[in-house]
Amino acid sequence: MLGVGAVVAGLVGNAILNPPYLAVLLEYFVPVMLLVAIMLGRITILEACLFLVRTTLMSAIKHMTAISQWIRAKIEEINSQQIVFFTRGDNLANLNRAMLYVQQNEHTNRIKIVTVVRSEDEVPPNLKHDLDFLNQAYPNIEIEFVVLTGVFSPELVQKLSEEWKIPTNLMFIGSPGTHFIYGLADFGGVRLII
């Protein structure tokens, strides 16, 4: 204690007698003491840095996970949006053309094939077989077959759009025949697959 006191007294005395020497002493003393403090406390400093890095990374990962989950949910929402194709069950080529159109131009993997008949016995007998074939030909597209009893009209399309929550611009029809009494504009956005 006596030795430390003498050194401190000597330093204070020199600082009072020669103030310019004090500035030189501090220029060397402070950096050396910082260096010594860093060397003695380097484990604590490294642990603090590690804690800071981990905290920052965990925060970034949490935000990135939330963003990636939101993006994945949006992709699934778009892919799960169903598309409706109204058919008379004419032939397999027309159904295949509709499937090709959906596969190449739409961002979905679900299609609802709908036929509207006046009575159940009007359903073309080969339509179910044709749809089974298309199910095998397009395994990545989920095909749902619906038979509706009634008359194909703009009112029916609007009712189905509201009931199924499918916008009319995601509903398709094949090329209408000459006996078709409605114009395409009457259907409020239904698209035509030729």
Please supply descriptive tags for the structure shown above.
194 residues; alpha/beta; Rossmann fold; 5-stranded parallel beta sheet; 6 helices; 58% helix; rod-shaped
Protein model, in words:
- With 194 residues, this protein is an alpha/beta fold.
- The protein folds into two domains: 2-76, no CATH class; 81-193, HUPs (Rossmann fold).
- Helices cover 58% and strands 14% of the residues.
- It contains six helices and five strands; from the N terminus they run αααβαβαβαββ.
- The chain has helices at 2-17, 19-40, 42-80, 92-105, 127-137, 154-164; strands at residues 83-86, 110-117, 142-149, 171-174, 191-193.
- It has a five-stranded parallel β-sheet, covered by helices on one side.
- Helix 1 crosses helix 2 and helix 4 packs parallel to helix 5.
- It is rod-shaped, with a radius of gyration of 39 Å.
- It starts with a helix and ends with a strand.
- The model has no long low-confidence stretch (mean pLDDT 86).
And the CATH topology of the largest domain? Rossmann fold
Integer average pLDDT: 86
Structural class: alpha/beta
Cα distance spanning the termini? 102 Å
What's the domain count? 2
Q: What is the rounded Rg?
A: 39 Å
Largest sheet: 5 strands, parallel
Strand order of the largest sheet: 3-2-1-4-5
Number of helices: 6
CATH architecture of the largest domain: 3-Layer(aba) Sandwich
Could you state the order of secondary-structure elements as H and E?
A: HHHEHEHEHEE
> What portion of residues belong to β-strands?
5-15%
CATH fourth-tier homologous superfamily of the largest domain:
HUPs
Gross geometry: rod-shaped
Q: Give the class-level CATH name of the largest domain.
A: Alpha Beta
Helix content: 55-70%
- Uncertain runs: none
Number of strands: 5
